[in-house]
Amino acid sequence: MDADVTDSAGTATEPDTESGRQPSTGAPGPEGEDTEAAAPPAGPNPKRHWLRWVALGTSVAILATAGAGWWFYRKLDGNITTDTSAAAELHTYEKERPTPVALDAQNILLIGSDSRSGDGNSKYGRDDGGSQRSDTTILLHLAADRKSATAMSIPRDLMVEIPSCAKPDDTRSQARFAQFNWAFETGGAACTIRTVEKLTDIRVDHHMVVDFSGFTDMVNAVDGVEVCLDEPVKDVQARLELPAGRQTLDGEQALGFVRARHGIGDGSDTQRMDRQQRFLGALFKKVQSNGVLLNPARLYPVLDAATKSLTTDSGLNSLSDLYELARSMRSVPMEKVQFLTVPRQPYVQDPNRDELVQPAAKSLFEQLREDNPVSLSPDETATQDKKNEEKSDDSVKTSGNGSDGGSGTPATGSPSPAPTFQGSNAAEGMCG
Q1: Is the whole model's pTM more than 0.90, yes or no?
Q2: 306-325: per-residue pLDDT in tens?
Q3: Residues sharing a CB contact under 8 Å with residue 87, sequence separation 6 or more, in sequence order
Q4: Which of these, 339, 315, 53, lies nearest to 205 by C-alpha position?
Q5: CA quadruple 95, 96, 97, 99: dihedral sign
Q6: At CA 358, angle to CA 393 and CA 163, rounded to 5?
Q7: Residues 52, 55, 59, CA angle at the centre, nearest 5°?
């Protein structure tokens, strides 16, 4: 056995020649202690102890934040209702639907339902078995380059061809020529989409249905929207009474304001749609200018309000889908978020109904279908042009949707390369 290795009997090893110290044998010295005093145990390191607690606290905070974020996401995601019946109906009639032209553009049909069923909606009227009508319908066109957005209102009293549609009781309606809002009452979103596509030859990519309570909650979530009124307003049916002047409307007041048809203006549906468009522009402006989209604390109430009363197709039925839509809208300049109404005039057989003004309507539909820019004229100019036109030709009463009287060409009769229509944009707001 090598002499340098201690044997099993505990023979001492060789001295430590480098340090000059005798290695300890581990045997007690004369006083009952080791011949070499043991090193005192190392005390706790305060810095290392503090870092441990910081790491632990950070981990807990991250997990808590992630957990809360996941809970909020699941809650908002679960708020959205998916319209599966519309998808089935549209699939059945796929061959009749228009072919998409601008593939990167998006056409979204926004439907404001006046249904009294559901939480929070009964106070707006009697629930007659869950029936619903489209109080407001807007075709929103997002340009492929996302540098503009055009919202085109479709009058609910516009006379249109409504196809045969599936009804809630599993029967089918008969195709008919009737006012536009009958499509939603008869066959819901699918029937409305097919009617719009038949009318415009524009492919509808997605749709959203929002009820009364959703609108009021959205307005409340952004702390109201400012409007300016030239005169007091009182409409008992719309539950609305407002003084003249600048003021901020809460959700209930805003709903009455956009729905009112009595005691405000001339009571026409034309003015009602104009108010709706301007109010939506002001709402969009406030969301953008107040940094709601970039502030989670302010964004959550808005999203919660929007998703709780939202019914969409399967392509927009998740929070991530809606976020992508909102993100794409964030880059659109407010002056390029435009609102207008399809060119129309009183229906020749019933002045209480509307019909399209041609060729202006056809020109507008083509601009949107081909993803071409839509030019709007200021309301003041359009109004003056309308007055001039009425003086020169009293036989045609138009609604003033085009600066050229709804024809898409200048008063001289020469062709116009860029038709101009009456409308407004989000930058104007309700107070200019």
Answers
A1: no
A2: 788 889 998 988 888 887 88
A3: 313, 314
A4: 315
A5: positive
A6: 135
A7: 140
